[in-house]
Automatic annotation (TrEMBL):
SUPFAM superfamilies: Aldolase. GO terms for molecular function: lyase activity. Homotrimer. This is Aldolase. Keywords: Carbohydrate metabolism, Lyase. It comes from the Bacteria. Belongs to the KHG/KDPG aldolase family. Pathway: Carbohydrate acid metabolism.
């Protein structure tokens, strides 16, 4: 999973979508060459939508992994793992969730804000740590500062990452492994009436701008 995220450089995120939109997102992501996306399980019907996403992915033999985000408890981690999640992403660091993921061989990306929290997550076994909310706690400058004494930190900033070249370039220059991007890729308004061509273009543009700003 680490190599996929490092190579892709970005973890696109969608949330609060219906199954039709979810199918469009999955098909267009796979067609664009995206290898992993995140579905944030924030809505009441998240389990239902996700189970149908997995069914659609299998029925169409799509080569795209699905991480499930906004996981707050070990019960939810277990539920989505059994439904078919390839990765569990949290806004926080929870030992119970981490232990469940390691025991069941599912990739775990916990969230953290401070250097001590990031190091704690690493000690618990996390390889990549989600920095959240990245823009509110210092942005790229913060990442650069904490990586100075700890250059091996593998960080994925989420929150405030945009599609602007200057923004992405600053994040990658700070030394992050990849970035998480959600509402700046698909706004709530876009997701209300998302078309396949529109989604495909969004993913293709994302791949292009990430590749350009990483070099």
């Amino acid at each position: 999973m680490y190599s996929i995220l490092k190579t892709q450089g970005v973890l696109p995120l969608v949330t609060q979508i219906n199954i039709e939109t979810a199918q469009i997102v999955l098909q267009s992501a796979a067609d664009a060459g995206i290898k992993i996306i995140e579905f944030a399980a924030r809505a009441d019907n998240a389990k239902e939508v996700f189970s149908q996403m997995i069914a659609f992915k299998k029925a169409n033999n799509l080569d795209v992994k699905i991480a499930v985000g906004s996981i707050l408890s070990v019960d939810d981690a277990e539920t989505f793992h059994l439904l078919g999640a390839d990765c569990i992403v949290c806004p926080h660091t929870d030992l119970e969730i981490g232990n469940y993921c390691f025991k069941n061989n599912i990739y775990w990306i916990p969230g953290a804000a401070t250097l001590n929290e990031i190091l704690h997550a690493n000690k618990l076994g996390a390889e990549i740590v989600k920095l959240f909310p990245a823009d509110k706690i210092g942005g790229p400058g913060y990442v650069k500062a904490i990586r100075a004494p700890f250059p091996n930190l593998k960080i994925m900033p989420t929150g405030g990452v945009t599609l602007e070249e200057s923004n992405l370039k600053a994040w990658f220059k700070s030394g992050v492994v990849c970035v998480g991007i959600g509402s700046n890729l698909f706004s709530k308004e876009m997701l209300l009436d998302l078309k396949y061509e529109q989604s495909l273009q969004a993913f293709q543009n994302l791949i292009e701008v990430v590749a350009k700003t990483r070099n």
